[in-house]
Amino acid sequence: MKISIITTFYNSSEYISECINSVQNIHSEHDVEHILVNDGSTDNTLDIITTLKYKNVRVIGKNHIGRGPALNLGLENATGYYICILDLY
Fold this sequence. Notes:
By secondary structure, this protein is an alpha/beta fold.
């Protein structure tokens, strides 16, 4: 069974590493994917994400569209049977 964790973020450089690491530390017999939805960040959040190597992490989005549409974008890209929302907004 696959679980999708969706995190929408906007200028979250202070918290993004801790958020991703918390998902990376999940020990489960299930397949876990982490979808990070960039809602137009203008700080160095994307640099932090791309500098570090994470497994099962996808980054989507680039324009500032707001939390609701960003969450919908994450849902459209989720492939899990169950979905968890873990926002940094």
